[in-house]
C-alpha cells in the first residue's frame, strides 16, 4: 500500500566557518642596509577589560502558520429553473431538462424535501476506442431556499447510474441529507451507463473518468450552474459518500483540495483495487472449509446465477458463537457490558480465535469451530497474502458485527460476483472477462492492478487511489476539513485500513492531524450501515460547524435504528437494546467509556477518553 508519508519537518544545521587570518611574511630582497630607527618610549598598555560573558541564544521555536478559519455560507434564493435548459452553457456540456420539483416529492426519514429545481444533462459525449458511446451523465438539484452550499455526491459500487442527487451515503437509515438541509447537490454516473458496467473497463478513458476525472470535470460545471441559478458561486463546497463514494471523497482530498472545503468519507475504499483482490483471495480461503457441492444464488441485480455456497464454511450459528466469545472477552473493556465493543484496539490484543473459541471435538454444531475453520477465519482476518506471504491488503479487526447479514453478503456472495468483475475487467491490465474467484491466480491479480501497457498507461492503483494520501497540506492550509467514518465490522473495506491512513496522516503532520482531519469508528457496523450498531448519525452538520465555525467534533452522537425508526429499521439491533439507544462516536484514538453512572442506553452516560 502506498502510504506516501511526508516528514512533518526537517531540522536545518547551520554551519559557521571560522577563517584564521594569517599574516605572513615576508620579505623582499634588496641588498641595502636600513639605517637604525630611534626607539620611541612605549606607552603603557591600557588594561584589558574582561569580556562580558555571552548569553546563550534562546532556541527559536518554528512558528506553525495558523490554519485559516473559513467564513459561514450565506443563504440564497433560486432565480430561475426551467430557463436553465436553454440559457445555461458550459464547455462540453448539454442540458437535457430543467424542471421544478414540488415540496414533498422526495423525503428522507419522514421529512419532506422542499421545492427545488432538477437539472439533468451530460458532459463530454464521445465515441470510445471500443466504438461505444460514452458521456458523463448527471443530475443536479437546486433548492428554492438555498443554504449557500454545494455538495458533490460520490456514489458507490462501479457507478454507472445517476443516483438521485440528495446527498445519500451519510450513514445507516439517515433522518436528514444534504438536499433536505438546503444544499445544491450533484450526482453522476462517473462516465458510463449501467449497461456498460461490465465492459467499460476495456476503454481507457472510461476507466479514468470512473477513477477520478468525472469529478474533476463536473465540479467547475456544477459551480457555474449554481451561479446561473442563484447569481453567485457557492460560499462553501462539500464532497461526500460511502464505499466507492468514500473512495471518491478521499481521492478528492488530494486531487480537488482547492475546490472543496469539507470532505465526508464513509467506509472509504481508498485502496479499492487491493481490497477487491483481497475479496477474491478470501473466497479461495473459505472454499477450503465449505461444504463440497453446496450451492446458492447470486442476487438478481448481479445475474441470479448459481454460485458455491461459501457460507457453509462459516455458518450464521458459528459466526454468532464467535461474536459472543468476542463480547465475553472485550465487551467490558469500555467499562460497560452493553453488547458493544468500543475499545477495538485493546480487543485485538486480548481476544484469541484459537484460545477463546471452542475447537470442535466432533461434528460441527454451531457452538465450535474446527481446526481448519480456525485457520481459514484467522488467515482472513490477518489479511490477504501472496504466495510468498507478502501482504496484499490490510488486516481486519475482530468485532461482534461479524454476525451481521451484510457482513455475510460481502464475504460469501459479492466476493464471487462483483469483485471478480472489478478485478478482471476494470482494474486489471490487460483487462479481460471477470475472473473465476475460486481458481484465479492471486499473484497474477495482485500484479495486474499495478501494471500498465501501451493502451492502458495508468494503473488501477494510480487512477483509483488518492496520490500521496498522507499529504493533505493544500487542503489543510486552506482551512478545509476531513471527517472519515467507518464500521469496525466492515467486511470489504477494512476499518484497519482507515486507521492506517489516519496514523500516516498524523505522522506526516508532526504527530497530530486532529486540527483538520478526524476518524470515527462505528463499533458493530458493517459496510456503510447495519450490524449490531448505532449506525444513524448526522456527521454532515458536525462537519459544517467545524469548517464554518471552528467547532472541532470530538464526538458525534449516533442512534440505534430499532422498531419504529423513521429512517428505516435495522433488523440487527439486538432485542436487549433500547430501540433508541445512543452512543458517542469518538474521534480516533479516543474510546467511548462508561462514566460509571447513568443509563446504559444513553450517550450522556459515556465519555470519549
Quick take:
The protein is α/β, with parallel strands linked by helices. Helices cover 26% and strands 16% of the residues.
Description of the molecule:
The longest helix has 27 residues, at 204-230. This protein has a nine-stranded mixed β-sheet, with helices on both faces. α2 (204-230) crosses α3 (244-255). It is built from 14 helices and 20 strands. A hairpin with a 2-residue loop joins β3 (107-108) and β4. With 609 residues, it is α/β, with parallel strands linked by helices. The chain has helices at 84-87, 204-230, 244-255, 272-287, 316-330, 344-350, 353-356, 371-382, 405-427, 442-448, 460-463, 473-478, 495-507, 539-549; strands at 76-77, 93-101, 107-108, 111-112, 116-127, 133-143, 145-146, 149-153, 184-188, 236-242, 262-266, 295-297, 306-308, 481-487, 517-522, 536-537, 555-559, 582-586, 592-594, 606-608.
Topology at a glance:
Layout: E1 76-77, H1 84-87, E2 93-101, E3 107-108, E4 111-112, E5 116-127, E6 133-143, E7 145-146, E8 149-153, E9 184-188, H2 204-230, E10 236-242, H3 244-255, E11 262-266, H4 272-287, E12 295-297, E13 306-308, H5 316-330, H6 344-350, H7 353-356, H8 371-382, H9 405-427, H10 442-448, H11 460-463, H12 473-478, E14 481-487, H13 495-507, E15 517-522, E16 536-537, H14 539-549, E17 555-559, E18 582-586, E19 592-594, E20 606-608
Parallel strand pairs: 8-9, 8-10, 10-11, 11-14, 14-15
Antiparallel strand pairs: 1-7, 2-5, 3-4, 5-6, 6-9, 12-13, 16-17, 17-18, 19-20
Helix pairs in contact: 2-3, 4-9
Amino acid at each position: 500500500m502506498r502510504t506516501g508519508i511526508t516528514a512533518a519537518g526537517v531540522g536545518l544545521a547551520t554551519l559557521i566557518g571560522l577563517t584564521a587570518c594569517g599574516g605572513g611574511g615576508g620579505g623582499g630582497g634588496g641588498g641595502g642596509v636600513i639605517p637604525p630607527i630611534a626607539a620611541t618610549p612605549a606607552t603603557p598598555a591600557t588594561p584589558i577589560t574582561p569580556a562580558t560573558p555571552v548569553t546563550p541564544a534562546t532556541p527559536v521555536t518554528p512558528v506553525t502558520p495558523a490554519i485559516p478559519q473559513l467564513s459561514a455560507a450565506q443563504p440564497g434564493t433560486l432565480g430561475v429553473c426551467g430557463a436553465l435548459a436553454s440559457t445555461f452553457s458550459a464547455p462540453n456540456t448539454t442540458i437535457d431538462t430543467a424542471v421544478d420539483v414540488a415540496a414533498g416529492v422526495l423525503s428522507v426519514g419522514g421529512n419532506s424535501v422542499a421545492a427545488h429545481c432538477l437539472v439533468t444533462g451530460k458532459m463530454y459525449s464521445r465515441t470510445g476506442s471500443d466504438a461505444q458511446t460514452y458521456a458523463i451523465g448527471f443530475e443536479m438539484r437546486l433548492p428554492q431556499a438555498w443554504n449557500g452550499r454545494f455538495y458533490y455526491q460520490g456514489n458507490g459500487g462501479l457507478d454507472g447510474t445517476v443516483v438521485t442527487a440528495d446527498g445519500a451515503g451519510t450513514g445507516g437509515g439517515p433522518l436528514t441529507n444534504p438536499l433536505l438541509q438546503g444544499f445544491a447537490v450533484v450526482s453522476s454516473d462517473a462516465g458510463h451507463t449501467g449497461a456498460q458496467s461490465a465492459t467499460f473497463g476495456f476503454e481507457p478513458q472510461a476507466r479514468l473518468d470512473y477513477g477520478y476525472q468525472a469529478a474533476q470535470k463536473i465540479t467547475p460545471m456544477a459551480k457555474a450552474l449554481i451561479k446561473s441559478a442563484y447569481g453567485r458561486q457557492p460560499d462553501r463546497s462539500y464532497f461526500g459518500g460511502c464505499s466507492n463514494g468514500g473512495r471518491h471523497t478521499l481521492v478528492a482530498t488530494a486531487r480537488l483540495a482547492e475546490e472543496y472545503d469539507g470532505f465526508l468519507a464513509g467506509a472509504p475504499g481508498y485502496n479499492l483495487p487491493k481490497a477487491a483482490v483481497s475479496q477474491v483471495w478470501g473466497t479461495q480461503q473459505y472454499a477450503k472449509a465449505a461444504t463440497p457441492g453446496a450451492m446458492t444464488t447470486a442476487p438478481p441485480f448481479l445475474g441470479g446465477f448459481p454460485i458455491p455456497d461459501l457460507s457453509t464454511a462459516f455458518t450464521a450459528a458459528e459466526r454468532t458463537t464467535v461474536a459472543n466469545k468476542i463480547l465475553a472477552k472485550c465487551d467490558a473493556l469500555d467499562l460497560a457490558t452493553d453488547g458493544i465493543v468500543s475499545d477495538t484496539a485493546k480487543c485485538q490484543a486480548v481476544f484469541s480465535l484459537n484460545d477463546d473459541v471452542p475447537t470442535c471435538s466432533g461434528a460441527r454444531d454451531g457452538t465450535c469451530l474446527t481446526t481448519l475453520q480456525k485457520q481459514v477465519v484467522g488467515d482472513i482476518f490477518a489479511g490477504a497474502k501472496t504466495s510468498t506471504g507478502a501482504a496484499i491488503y490490510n488486516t481486519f479487526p475482530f468485532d461482534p458485527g461479524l454476525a451481521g447479514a451484510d457482513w455475510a453478503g460481502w464475504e460469501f456472495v459479492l466476493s464471487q460476483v462483483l469483485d471478480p468483475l472489478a478485478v478482471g475487467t476494470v482494474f486489471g491490465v490487460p483487462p479481460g472477462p471477470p475472473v473465476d474467484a475460486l481458481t484465479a491466480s492471486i499473484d497474477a491479480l495482485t500484479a495486474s492492478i499495478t501494471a500498465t501497457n501501451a493502451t492502458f498507461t495508468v494503473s488501477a492503483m494510480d487512477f483509483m487511489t488518492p496520490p500521496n494520501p498522507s499529504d493533505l497540506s493544500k487542503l489543510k492550509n486552506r482551512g478545509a476539513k476531513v471527517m472519515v467514518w467507518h464500521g469496525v465490522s466492515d467486511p470489504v473495506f477494512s476499518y484497519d485500513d482507515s486507521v492506517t491512513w489516519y496514523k500516516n496522516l498524523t505522522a506526516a503532520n508532526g504527530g497530530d492531524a486532529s486540527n483538520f482531519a478526524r476518524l470515527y469508528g462505528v463499533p458493530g457496523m458493517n459496510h456503510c450501515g447495519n450490524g449490531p450498531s448505532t449506525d444513524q448519525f448526522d456527521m454532515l452538520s458536525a462537519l459544517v460547524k467545524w469548517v464554518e465555525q471552528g467547532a472541532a467534533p470530538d464526538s458525534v452522537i449516533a442512534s440505534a435504528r430499532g422498531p419504529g425508526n423513521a429512517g428505516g429499521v435495522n433488523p440487527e439491533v439486538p432485542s436487549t437494546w433500547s430501540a433508541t439507544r445512543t452512543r458517542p462516536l469518538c474521534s480516533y484514538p479516543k474510546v467511548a467509556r462508561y462514566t460509571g453512572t447513568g443509563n446504559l442506553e444513553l450517550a450522556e452516560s459515556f465519555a470519549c477518553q
